[in-house]
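=== Structural record ===
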Amino acid sequence: MQEQIASYLFQYKTCPLPGLGTLSVVKSGAEADFAGKLITAPKPVVRLENKESDTTGLVEYIANVSGDDTGKVSEALDHFCIDLKKQMKVQSTVKLAHIGNFFVDGSGKISFKPEELPASFLQPVYAERVIHPDAEHQILVGDKETTNTVMTEFFTEVPAVKDRWWIWAIVLGVIGLLLVVIYFTQLNGTPAFGNAVKI
C-alpha cells in the first residue's frame, strides 16, 4: 500500500489519506546566488494539509495497479490510515516509505516531516550574469515605461560651468590699487595735484 501511495503522490502531486489529511507536493522556487554564479534547483516538498479530500482517484489508481476491486481497495486504504494513527499513539514517529514521517506534535495535532531528497537530484546550475552595456531595453519607472538609455542620461550629472568673473574683477582691482599706491610713493613728497614746480 505504501508503494502505491508514494507512486500516486509523485505522479498526481496530491494524495488524500482518510482520517489524516491530504499530502501534496509543492515546489519551492529556484534561488539565484550571484556571488557564487549559481542557480539552485527548485526543491519539491511534501506537505500535509489537515483537510479531507475525495479518495476516488487514489482508490481507482491502486485498484488498477493491484488488480483488486475498488471496494476492497477503499476498505484497505481506510484500515491502513487507521493503523497509521494507532501507531502514532504508540511510537513517536511513523515512517511512510519514500515520503516522510508522521508524528504527533506537542498540541496533539498530526504533523508530517518530509523525507529529504538526495543532493544528487538537486544539483545547482552554473549561471554567469551577462551584461550588455550598449543594449537598450524597456524598463518601468513608477507607472511610466521608458528605456535604460533615457534613464542613464537623466541621472548622469552634467557638470555646471561656474561663472568666475568676480575673481578677475578682484585681481584687476588689486592691480589698480597697487598701481595707485606705487604712483603716490614715486612722487617723493611732492603734491600729486596742482603745480609741482617749486618757486
Q: What stands out?
A: Residues 2-126 form one domain. The CA atoms of residues 6 and 98 lie 7 Å apart. The mean pLDDT is 84.
